[in-house]
Amino acid sequence: MTTIWPELELLLAKVQKPARYIGLEDGSQRPHHDQRQVGWLLVYPDAYEIGLPNQGLQILYEILNERDDALAERAYAPWTDLESLLRARRLPLFSLDTHRPAAEFDVIAFNLSAELVYTNVLNCIDLAGVPVRSAERRPEHPLIGAGGHCTYNPEPLADFLDFVVLGDGEEVVSEITEVIRDWKAGGRTEGSRQHVLRALARIPGVYVPSLYEATYDGTALVAVEPTVSDAPALIDKRTVADLADWPYPRRQLVPLTEVVHDRLNVEVFRGCTRGCRFCQAGMITRPVRERPAEQVRHMVSEGIRRTGYDEVALTSLSSADFSGIEKVVAGTIADAPNGNAVTVSLPSLRVDAFTVGIAAEIQKARRTGLTFAPEAGTWRMRQVINKLIREEDLYAAVESAYSQGWRRMKLYFLTGLPTETDDDTLGIAELGRNCVEIGRRYHKGNASVTVSVGGFVPKPFTPFQWFGQNTVAELQRKIGLLRDDLGRGKGRPSANRGVQLKWHDPKATFVEGLMSRGDRRLGPVIEQVWREGGVFQEWSELFAHDLWVKAMADHGVSIDWYVYRHRTEGEVLPWDHLSAGLHKDFLWHDWRDALAEVGLPDCRWTPCYDCGACTGYGIEHIVASATPPAGGSQGTGQDLLGGGAVPVTLLGRKPEPVVAAS
Ligand code: SF4
User: Fold this and answer.
1) Which of 602, 610, 617, 623 has the most ligand 1 atoms within 8 A of CB, as the residue to mutate?
2) Are 306 and 334 in contact (CB under 8 A)?
């Protein structure tokens, strides 16, 4: 077996966190490599502690290793200290499980959960010893693939990726494996790379960017069309109809060092119909598909027994909507081995579902962080974004938590939303102060609130995909408004002292916006930023705004045109040749409703709006309760007991944002 371990081991004493590179976690696999098998290297292009918990990657890791004709290992982006040492000694990117050179795998597949990792993708390809541009790769090079939420607009990475998967990965990885297995068996001859790419393009849900050509009229995109007859004009996403068929991961990895979301994670359902207009995950993962409650309970009890975790997160986009939630929560606590306390986290639980009873139940086990996500500061703004949480719902939830002993909680908001006024922005501070005052009824001077504010980035396949993002200066001004309003001597000074304001760096928001809705012409920009040293752009200490601005100027890319401009109804969007199952006219009408401040109730309680997502699956939504929540509220996004709201998709789960200024 080829391994760089002997050389790597000597370097580990010289790096900050050697545990990132060792592997050997409980649940990890050290597959035997056989030339007849298809070797997959599944890469999370960020630091180990962000990537390790990724459920999508772990699911594919297990599915592939169960196949006779495939094997899979994992890799994470080496931090800059190790990368320098590797390059100085001409050592390559390596797999974590057997420390094998990345270029010895047949496929290097990236999880694209966030736009700011794009330069890390190029860095990993280069460190693997593979040409970064797909056009320069030869038959002996691995195929470079990607999955995850960002692949719903992969165009900025079109020059670098050989293939892209849209949607759920459980089934399609096997179909891809079979195509590559046959290609290998045929000897990977000169010229055959093109043949295998064309064969991949025939698999539903697989997009091969090099088989498509983009045409422009001046700056405007006219079309992205196939150049060969066997590549489809429209690539539909893949959807796994029944989660019961895929009870993965069966052996969740247990890290040897500290990572985010360090707990047992069990996915209870995919998809969301609440229709928050800013939320790409909610739109692209439709339709809603539940895992049977009995299977969830089994996965939880087995997982706790095997891993020794005392915390389990029941993950989804809105966990309280899971029809078996009460049974599973009660069962989990009752099933705890040896009577030990087990904490149940419900990422993305609705605010209106957080009652004194739930607070008390969860508090029994362990009291950790608590996050609510009203997303906007005023009811008007929440109608625009279709997050119909009323203030009384939020205050009731906050009061439930304070009354059960919590003293501190986090409120998450977006700024820069469509139609946002200064009154809406200042409403964020007002909500924060009101929550502090509720807490002080229970804890005198000891109650506090962290108000965390992120800049809004319009995403493909959402009703807000036509919106011109706020400029950096405008986002900075809005954050300045909040800082001023929460300052000493302003508003209610005593309550202000209980509010800690944190915000996402608007300059990082701008780069996310550039990538989110960009097209193929951004490839040279990404490549230049990477070549000039811009890696780990999700990390505030390494984020290099100036490199992005310079690269855009050098390549004649207009910030206004790509980021700040409103799009028109008839405009061809860079992802129009891809399909998330949603009708474009449904999204457009929802955008007009947003501008008219009209909310759109959850389609589980109304006739179907024909958004397109359920067509062809014969799936009926399972309703958690027979009636909509009292008061018409349908807010989502509360995170109990730490960790972020956790969308689960193809290759992955998005980590909490790392770039933050405070
Ligand atoms: S197709 Fe209808 S029922 Fe299905 S998610 Fe869309 S609006 Fe809801």
Assistant:
1) 610
2) no
